Amino acid sequence: MAEHRSMQRAALLDAARSLLSEGGTEALTFPALAERTGLARSSVYEYFRSRAAVVEELCEVDFPLWAAEVEVAMAVADSPEGQVEAYVRQQLALVGDRRHRAVVAISASELDAGAREKIRAAHGGLVAMIVEALGTMGHAQPRLAAMLLQGVVDAAVRRIELGAAEDPRAITEAAVSMALRGVRG
To answer: In terms of Cα–Cα distance, which of 54, 65, 50 is closest to 98?
Structure first.
C-alpha cells in the first residue's frame, strides 16, 4: 500500500511538472492533475491539500537535483573563474529541462507564504555555492556579489524562456561574459 501511494504521488508530481512546463501555473489544476494521472479529482486531494502543497513538494524534490547538477559542474572547474563560468553555464543549460521550466513557472506564480519561503531558501542555497569562489576572486562582499550574479543568471533565464530574438547560446555567452568581465564585455 505504501509503495502504491508513493508511486501515485510521483505520478502526480510528474504530471504537475508537465502541466507547469506546458502551460504555466494556470495549467496546474487538480482536475488537470486527475486527468493526467487517471485518478479521480477527489483522490488528488488525498495526496495534496492545495496547489501550493504540490508546488512546495516539487521544490523539495526538484530543486536539490537541479542544484546538485550546478554543484557538480562547478566541482570540475580548475579555478574560481572557472567555477563562476560553470555556475552560469550549467544553470542556463538547464533552462530546457522540464524540472527547470516547472521551477521557473512556479517562481512566477502567486503562491502562499510557505511556498514562497521554500523557493527563497532553495535559491539561497544556490547562491551560497558561489560565494567562496567570488571571495577567492577578491570580491570585498562575496555574498552580495553572488546575489547580483544570480540576478544576471535569472535575467538570462527569463530571456531564454521568453524565446527572445537572440539565440540561447548568445544569451549564455553574454551572461558568462558579464559574470566574468562586468559590463565592459
So the answer is: 65
Closest to 91 (Cα-Cα) out of 17, 185, 172: 172
Calculate the dihedral angle through the C-alpha atoms of 80, 81, 83, 85, rounding to the nearest 10 degrees. 170
Q: Residue 131: enclosing H or E segment and its boundaries? A: helix 113-136
Q: What is the pTM of this model?
A: 0.77
Residue whose cell numbers read 551560497: 128
Q: What is the mean pLDDT of residues 72-98?
A: 92
When pLDDT is averaged across residues 17-45 and rounded to a whole number, the result is 89
Dihedral, CA of residue 90, residue 154, residue 168 and residue 17, to nearest 10? 80
Q: Are 179 and 152 in contact (CB under 8 A)?
A: yes
Using the predicted structure, report yes or no on whether residue 79 has a pLDDT greater than 60. Answer: yes
CA atoms of 66 and 126, how far apart (whole Å): 9
